[in-house]
Each structure stands twice: as structure tokens, then as C-alpha cells.
Amino acid sequence: MAEELNKILGYYINENTGRPVFPSIYGENAFLNSIVKPIYDIVKAEIANNKNDTTPHLDWQNYDDINEYFWSRWCFEKLKWPIDIGRNFFTKTTKGKRVGKTCFVE
């Protein structure tokens, strides 16, 4: 993402096409719909998994867990750019198939 932004702001010309580099995602509300909304949907689903604080902390991701995931070195290696919503981070339902806790349980 940062590399792409750097090329766009630097008016980089694609050697293969001879045209300026354009964003991978574009259109009306593209960033909101392609990046922010999928992440929001995960947070919303995890809140539902909490079941009003009756679920053990180990079984659901809170904001800190998601934040730790995005600060990890391999986050964008796993998610790719533009973000691949088919990755296990975006799995909303089945326990054990999503990313889950990244470092420790509070």
C-alpha cells in the first residue's frame, strides 16, 4: 500500500504501459468499501461472539488483538494489497479458522 501510494504521489510511470500508476482500488467510496468496511465487519462479528461478556476472552478477538495483527510484520504478506478478504483474518464465524489471538491472552 505504501509503495503504491509513493508511486502515485511521485508521478511514477509504469515501464510496461507508459502510463502513470493508478491505485489498485478506485471509484466512489473505494477505500471505505474495500478496506474499512471489511475490517469493521470483523470487529462487529467479534463483538457478537463476545455474547455480552459471557464468552471466555480466549474465544474472541477484541480491538487490541486486531490492532496487534495489523502491527505484525507479516500482516500485509498475509492479507496482500489490495486486501484479499478471502484470507482467514476475515473469517467471521467458524471458531479455529480465523486468526484469533496473536500474542497472548490478557
From TrEMBL:
* CC per GO annotation: plasma membrane
Q: Which organism is it from?
A: Lactuca saligna
Q: Name one Pfam family in it.
A: FKS1_dom1
Tell me which InterPro entries the record gives: FKS1-like_dom1
Record domain 1,3-beta-glucan synthase component FKS1-like: where: 1-84
Q: What is this protein called?
A: 1,3-beta-glucan synthase component FKS1-like domain-containing protein
Coiled-coil stretches are none
Entry's Gene Ontology molecular function annotations: glucosyltransferase activity
Write down the SMART domains for this protein, in alphabetical order: FKS1_dom1
